[in-house]
Amino acid sequence: MKINQFWIRVFGIFGIIGGLTLFAGDMLFYYDPSNTNLRENMGNASNFRIMTSGVTALLAAWFYMLGVIQVYHAFKPSKPVLRNTLLFCFSAIVIAYGVIHGVYVSIATSAKLATQNNLEMNEAVSLAVETNNVLRLFVYPIFGLLSILFIVQVWKRKTLYPRWIILFFPLIPFLIQGFICENLSGSTWIIVCGGYLNLILIIFFIASTIALWNIKRSESNSE
User: Fold this and answer.
1) pLDDT (tens digit, 9 = 90+) per residue, 163-184?
2) Distance (Å) of CA 147 to CA 85, 163, 166, 175, 189
3) What is the DSSP string of 160-206?
4) Rounded distance between C-alpha atoms, residue 8 and residue 5, angstroms
5) Rounded to 5 degrees, what are φ and ψ at 39?
6) Which end of the chain is more exposed for a tag (fewer CB within 10 A), N or C?
7) Is the model's pTM score more than 0.90?
8) How far apart are CA 23 and CA 28, in angstroms?
């Protein structure tokens, strides 16, 4: 599939939009300037905020999938089996982002019912949280495979990416999430840690788009 320079950039921008959309969905669940307890904030969120956040999951998954096309194109010099494996892994992960965020609607709804009816919060949301955790177990091995494939191919210069893109690949920020969140507090903690997984994809797609922004036409149109 041939993609000209304009569409290489546009697909990257779609990936960024996907991250911003789902990050907004996270904030609709979590943000409260006076409280850093995320479950309590979900329990106090309005029906409109919960419903709108659920909608962002679908929209973001669509945008993220368009963003994956840019990454797939960047792997054009790689062997077809590796490119297709990357496409499968990255697509599976961004679809999971949308599905897992959708499950958070159940957590938010349970938290809201607990708040309204004076129920024990953790017990009320336990089933939805457990379901969310099970879904994540399917994603981790796929993310591991994607990380190995991406880092090795980029380091070997088998892609259109420069090596520095590895620093912005989601694996590194994912591994240091605990350290970052332990050193933040208040509203900053809610914004960064509440939307962390989407923020790392926003950063990646920004870096990816910058890396490919002025890629040579001969490279972008090569077979």
Assistant:
1) 999 999 999 999 999 999 999 9
2) 11, 14, 10, 12, 27
3) SS-GGGGGGSTHHHHHTHHHHHHT--HHHHHHHHHTHHHHHHHHHHH
4) 5
5) -70, -40
6) C
7) yes
8) 9
